[in-house]
Amino acid sequence: xxxxxxxxxxxxxxxxxxxxxxxxxxxxxxxxxxxxxxxxxxxxxxxxxxxxxxxxxxxxxxxxxxxxxxxxxxxxxxxxxxxxxxxxxxxxxxxxxxxxxxxxxxxxxxxxxxxxxxxxxxxxxxxxxxxxxxxxxxxxxxxxxxxxxxxxxxxxxxxxxxxxxxxxxxxxxxxxxxxxxxxxxxxxxxxxxxxxx
Length: 197
Hints:
The protein is elongated. 49% of the residues lie in helices and 8% in strands. It is mainly alpha-helical. The protein folds into two domains: 11-73 and 159-191, no CATH class; 81-154, Orthogonal Bundle (Arc Repressor Mutant, subunit A), CATH 1.10.10. It contains eight helices and two strands. The chain has a two-stranded antiparallel ribbon.
């Protein structure tokens, strides 16, 4: 029996692929190397055989599984790994902005003493900091530090970018660009798909 392997996260997971909409330039605008879809035209693409959507879906699903299995980020030292509770705490600060301990207690449904101890520990690791509230000097706001933001982003990252970069270095530069453009276009197409109910 083969070892159990966790299923990869969904492709739309922002930790996997981040992209932004591309403005359409127009049909095959001269000098841009782009079509109206935003896809970069390369001679290699024209020489590839056509593939129907079902065959592509099957090939891509297999490839995605392989990328996840071989490119997933693994924490070498678990002491450097954030706990789920700490990750949730930092993520809340990242999304909501600086808050008082009272506000965090209400938002996270935790006892003030528990959160106060957590803030002290995280402040000691330079993940958060306390600063006086400009609107009321009697209150302290809890901020996410730049170091905390970097470590949070690294924790949420699913794939090992250094490993991916080493593998990508073996590909022809134009094929790398072609693949990146194709993936970005696929993500945009997936965003317009309505989920199955």
